[in-house]
Specification:
The chain is of the alpha+beta class. The chain has 16 helices and 23 strands. The strands form 7 sheets. The chain has a 7-stranded mixed β-sheet with strand order 17-18-16-15-21-22-23. The chain has a 5-stranded mixed β-sheet with strand order 3-2-1-6-14, sandwiched between helices. Helix 11 crosses helix 12, helix 12 packs across helix 16 and helix 13 crosses helix 16. It is globular and about 60 Å long.
Length: 492
């Protein structure tokens, strides 16, 4: 039996999962990651903690599986996108915290760039992205300026995939891959190369950026000191692209949605990077050998599971997520309460980094259960709005969703989602779809399977949710959209 080790470096945790060649999960080990959020909208993580906990999970995973490490054929990596850091080219030591995709410190810089409408159009035409602090370009620009003030030289920049790859290979491979590079706002979608005009705009040297490789292929071998042998790294994808890949080919009327820290919906569009006419993004889905690059439309909400974590950790509303669901199920309505979880601004279609979260409609009769229910409905509202955007942009009616991610485990959320979106919701048997996608593309890179279509047959629906109370779902959505307008343009 051959095995694949998938490393999934998320925002709230990092995990290692071993899959066998039938794509059955053998063992999983995870470890939470600390997030340092400031009132100034800065969101950071410790780059060293990310690496140490990731390799720690990998070693524990192998040990607890009782598998001979020689039978692990390859490693696949998937990661939170857009998050960036700097490290020393000579020593390999981090020179900064990892600036997380949710960080808004460059909002004013982005607003200034956005005022030049001609520039904004050129950036979207080249990169498929709107000008927003989420993406890596202005973060790297900020880091470059900050490190220059400290007179630090020999600086390399990279997204999380580059950082993990650099460390796994013992500083031998300094590279990224297309799906991650496409989220930096620095890569030309058509050529899969760093765009010289954008590098000049943001004052970034190409020597400070990793080489862009295909998503499937040879990324190098692990340092022998890590596992006792050298294991090939044969596949890397950004987390949402990995989730999309795990579902297998998506039909024209289908949509892939991941419910995690944020909510991300992707719809494949083929081999041409078609521009969108709304706040939807065009992104690289994956780039595989001897095939044209695959692209996708993407729409997202920045805060999904992060809101429930906030209620649990900062507010103390519940002790765990099971309690959250149990409370929400005690009531049939929100009691008039509406939540807009714009903690770090709004993504598609509004792209308003100045928006902030609100809870409105509180009254003397409001109970914890109403707030929990309102949080569930807020997540469903966000996902419904971005799905409608993708439907309108593609011109194809979406009748079914393939869903995954931690929040997809919630039956009450998935039923509310089906009611509100008026679609069938297929919950994947592999909830950990990002890791599954990384394992699949790595396995293909290591010739474990002959075709993507063959292995994707292993991915089945664990449960299908069908619309039951459409009118109630639409009423929640209308109430949410009223509240949404009040959350916009809050930070001056």
């Amino acid at each position: 039996m051959q095995y694949i080790l998938a490393l999934d470096i998320g925002t709230t945790s990092t995990r290692a999962i071993i899959f066998n060649q039938k794509m059955e999960q053998v063992v999983q080990v995870s470890d939470p990651l600390k997030i340092f959020a400031q009132e100034t909208s800065e969101v950071e993580q410790d780059a060293n903690e990310i690496w140490i906990k990731t390799i720690g999970c990998a070693k524990k995973c192998i040990k607890s599986s009782h598998i001979n490490v020689k039978n692990i054929k390859c490693i696949g990596i998937t990661n939170q996108r857009e998050t960036v850091l700097a490290w020393d080219a000579a020593t390999g030591k981090s020179l900064s915290s990892a600036i997380v995709w949710q960080d808004r410190r460059t909002a004013k810089r982005c607003a200034a760039l956005e005022k030049n409408r001609s520039l904004a159009r050129r950036i979207k035409a080249k990169t498929g992205l709107v000008i927003d602090p989420s993406f890596s370009a202005t973060k790297i620009e900020w880091l470059n300026t900050d490190l220059a003030k400290k007179k630090i030289k020999r600086v390399l920049f990279g997204t999380i995939d580059s950082w993990i790859l650099w460390n796994l290979t013992g500083k031998q491979t300094y590279a990224t891959e297309s799906s991650n590079a496409s989220r930096t706002m620095l890569m030309d979608l058509k050529t899969q190369t760093w765009d010289k005009d954008l590098l000049k705009l943001f004052k970034i040297s190409e020597r400070q950026l990793p080489k862009i490789l295909q998503s499937q292929g040879e990324f190098g071998l692990t340092d022998k000191k890590l596992f006792g042998i050298q294991i090939p790294i044969t596949g890397i994808l950004g987390d949402q692209q990995a989730s999309l890949f795990s579902h297998g080919p998506i039909h024209a009327n289908g949509l892939a949605v991941t419910f995690g820290t944020g909510i991300f919906a992707l719809k494949p569009i083929g081999n041409i990077p078609r521009p969108s006419t709304s706040g939807i993004l065009t992104t690289v889905a994956w780039d595989r050998p001897n095939r044209p690059v695959e692209y996708a439309y993407e729409a997202s909400a920045l805060t999904g599971g992060a809101m429930l974590e906030w209620f649990k950790n900062q507010i103390g509303l519940v002790k765990n997520m099971k309690e959250f669901d149990a409370l929400a199920e005690q009531v049939q309505t929100t009691g008039g309460v509406t939540i807009v979880p714009a903690f770090t601004g709004l993504a598609a279609p509004d792209w308003d980094p100045s928006a902030r979260g609100l809870i409105i409609g509180l009254n003397r009769g409001t109970q914890k259960a109403h707030i929990c229910r309102a949080a569930i409905e807020a997540i469903a509202c966000q996902a419904t709005r971005i799905a409608r955007l993708l439907q309108d942009q593609s011109g194809t009616k979406i009748t079914n969703w393939r869903v995954s991610g931690g929040l997809a485990k919630s039956n009450i959320l998935m039923q509310s989602q089906s009611d509100m979106s008026q679609t069938n919701i297929c919950r994947e048997s592999h909830i950990e779809s990002t890791a599954a996608g990384a394992a699949m593309i790595a396995g293909l890179g290591a010739d474990i399977w002959p075709t993507w279509r063959e292995i994707s047959k292993q991915m089945t629906c664990e449960k299908v949710f069908r619309p039951k109370r459409i009118k109630r779902g639409l009423a929640f959505l209308a109430q949410y959209e009223r509240a949404l307008e009040r959350a916009k343009n809050w930070v001056i």
